[in-house]
């Protein structure tokens, strides 16, 4: 019992010691601030400068510029007449509309209201038959235009400035006029007007307008988010990131405002200087971004002059560092035509919200399901052909490809090989016109494996919004066959980038990032190295002698996959989307590329534009010469 008592005393003593240490040393300043704040009032300055946003080479993408503002600070000794006098010094600088209701309010505050009310009205108010609100409405209605002639136009302007000087909390600086010239600012300071100063307010300067939607915008806190921001310690008049990277990295970029103590006369004493926010360094190479934009635009103009490109308007490109998953360039361009004169619109931000039927680029994931279920026998050849299910038209490869093993099936993009693999996964022995029963669980299983690559799931990119694509909601064997060749679910360009990088890293998937940083591992595809070697070899053959020949120069030793898919554009039109994913070099992966050209052609037409191939080849060359061969 004695030991228990001694132990309890020791524990209590330890708790008190920790508390005293916290109060006196560890969190002393915080507790002192809380103590002082019971009796003292502290305010912060207007927004401190945010950190800049830079590209990987130190090029400034977003900077701060400033504007001069006339700011008024109230003092407890200032009377109404004193503030009207101050307003008179400012009337030549401030252009302000006259609000007659405000002038009426001023009149009522400047006169004995009893003179405006009847005896009955006064009695009704005295006995609370008229509320304060109703009384105010009644009084306002009794103030005539004739009465207001007491105030000439100049006085009415001063009255409006006076009201602006008294908006908000009494201890906060009131911005009376924004964005004045340095000369006017100097003039205001020189006049030494009581309570009035000229202060700098920092605003964002976006150096590359095309990227603004990705970089984001800064604005006053949106009304619907005010409560959340106030809980985080923000002020009502704070400027915050409301979109893009400005929003995602708001707390990192935002500066720390100066802190002032409010004296009893409402004057301010500086307690803490303002601090500029942190600079954010992106993985983006702005020169590469600009050069890729030029390649896209040139090839889009050429493509629009070809047949069957009526519905082709958009192109999307992503380039990344394979090892880190940092994005080096992201490009989205829309071509606008008017009587054969072309202009362009930057739609890069749509990369985060758009998805596509991408076709055969995803066959590495389909192969993965086959390998995991022993549904593919390494090296064994099967004869290409068609699959004919009950009550469903035959499904074939784009042509008879002869005998193929697992590598050759990827090289030549055999649909039949994927269909047979799927039937093996389902445990179905194929015969023509066979009925195959599938369930939603079969789709879920495939989607789970695909999701490990980032297909149909979030890539955890550092951006406020990310669309994961569109999943088909019907269940049938026919649709599952479509699924395994990339003709059912829709995927994003970001998902494709995550997918090709995961293959390059033998199943290790990291989150994607626009900032220059080390990204965390978020998934591992449980596929043995020997199987990845087969997928990679198949993709190498695609680029160097298969369906992807000409998309990347063979000298670059690249690994990749092409895709062609059909999309129902409208009731009467089915279009073709071309996709390409690639990384290089094969033996030491460094950089990856995704190119998507939606609606590049029209289905069932003889001629399809090779714009995707041309763009991919030029961009591959650009990447190789800039980063690999130097």
Number of helices: 22
Distance between the termini: 78 Å
Structural class: alpha+beta
Largest sheet: 6 strands, antiparallel
Mean pLDDT: 89
CATH architecture assignment name of the domain at 289-628: 3-Layer(aba) Sandwich
Helical residue percent? 25-40%
Low-confidence spans: 29-38
* Strand element count: 22
Gyration radius (Cα, Å) is 34 Å
Task: Output the CATH topology of the domain at 289-628.
Answer: Beta-lactamase
CATH class of the domain at 289-628 equals Alpha Beta
Please name the fourth-level CATH homologous superfamily of the domain at 289-628. DD-peptidase/beta-lactamase superfamily
Walk across the major sheet and give the strand order: 13-12-11-22-21-20
Shape: elongated
Q: What proportion of the residues form beta strands (DSSP E)? A: 15-25%
